Fold each of these.
Amino acid sequence: MTVPKEQHPALKLAYRRRNVWDCLSGQEKGLVMAITDNYKSFLDMAKTEREAFETSLRYVKSAGFRPVDDAIALKPGDRVFAVNRHKALIAAVIGNKPLEYGLNVIGAHMDSPRLDLKPLPIYEEEGLVLFKTHYYGGIKKYQWLSIPLALHGIVIRDNGEPVYVLIGEKPGDPIFTITDLLPHLAKDQMDKKMADAVAGEGLNILVGGIPLAGEDLKDRFKLAILEHLSREYAIVEEDFISAELELVPAWQARDIGFDRSFIGGYGQDDRVCVYTALRALVETTAPELTALVVLADKEEIGSNGNTGMESVFFTNTIREIASRCVSGYKELTLRRIMSNSRALSADVNVGLDPGFKDVVETMNAARLGAGLVLTKYTGSKGKYESNDAHAEFVAHVRRVFNNAGVIWQTGELGKVDQGGGGTIAHLLAAHGMDVLDCGVALLGMHSPFEVASKADVYMAYKGYRAFYTR
Ligand SMILES: [Zn+2]
């Protein structure tokens, strides 16, 4: 008699992607829903990098973290944070072992693709008042037409005073939009390549249409909006030059599906990893090795700038922590701490979409609902600009996750030669630490409405916790 196929002992030898829902107890399923409800609130409060920063800062403060600068010396169990210009945050829980044993670092980014206002945005044309924008990060421009947009950000007057702007989030608030062409007259547009159908200079936001009285007054539609802005915010047109005003989708994060299995929302790249890593850190007490999260800005435009991962903020903060933990601290101490550290570059990856199967290699593509994704390498073409994690370190993370009951999977960023992308992994690795990309698979990445599986969000949290407390 032959052994039934499904019970053949050789089946155990094969890699099998598991579905998280198959592996959860009833109690854990309840936890998935509770944590992801909280995550949705986080997404709604954190639609810009500044808001993600402020929300994260409030969270760590409420969990007993204090500024590293306030401490004279640090001891195991201490919880500290450091901030950088309202846009980047580092928080850490000091471990029992000396810092020279290295840190367990998780790095994520708080910025997301969006539309920024230009320094001089406002103009009128044909009785409409519009704002010119410059898009930030990798977007498919057509996705930003005909959707409700909210305006978030800050204006700094020349005397240094900040003016906070938030329009389009409260019920009853006006919203803004970019109008699209009607299909009846879109023959030429529809014949274009998708990349050319909407021009970068075509992303203009409708912001008003009631003129000042006096038909021969020049620019009276624009002037009416300037008058409104002066009245409501006490700002003048020149103030836009020192402003960071961002258009983001005006909708909230929502459950998707009859069974509420997914979350749809804006900015999940990479706030899904920001939220789960931060939550994992906050729930970590007395770890063996110091646990640290770095939440960076500007990843979507190359990690440059003094709030991006390329900046000295990361090194300087670890220096500040180390000088308070290690007696006889010297520069070499920092170098040792860095090169003995391990890091997860917590960023999203592509989930296999049945509608777009041909851009991935299905055997090595991540599935939604199959857990946290380990990505050994990103990059493009022949792995260019990829960190390509060492086998030893991938095995370490695998072991940590397996021991903690974390459901994880492997995932590549698309087919070979299809395109590609990068994360902050190589920037962490430059300090000498071992780094692995490890995050949540999304559908519709970089769209105004990205989709994640609640099961994967939960496993990210569980995996990051395990990494900190291994
Ligand atoms: Zn990202």
Amino acid sequence: MKRRLRPIVIAASVLALGTVIARRLGYKVGGNTVVRCRQGHLFTTLWIPGVKLKAIDLGIARFQHCPVGNHWTIVFPVRDSDLTDDERAFAATHHDIRIP
Ligand SMILES: [Zn+2]
């Protein structure tokens, strides 16, 4: 039993560690995360590392639909400290579908 559970425990630990590291770097991953697409659009998405039903996870970047420009693109999380109040407000009002 223990031997079977081990890969699951290791995978969960790696994901948890990735979330902690990303948060230390100032990225608010692990919930509602502000992201920027390659064309500069800002929006909020549900970003849970390792969990993705609507996007292809590329580690710190993802390929998904941008609701602002209505196109498919690569998006990157944006550090909260890098956002102006206007950008934060804009992102808060633009949220894609609420599934990870
Ligand atoms: Zn866009």
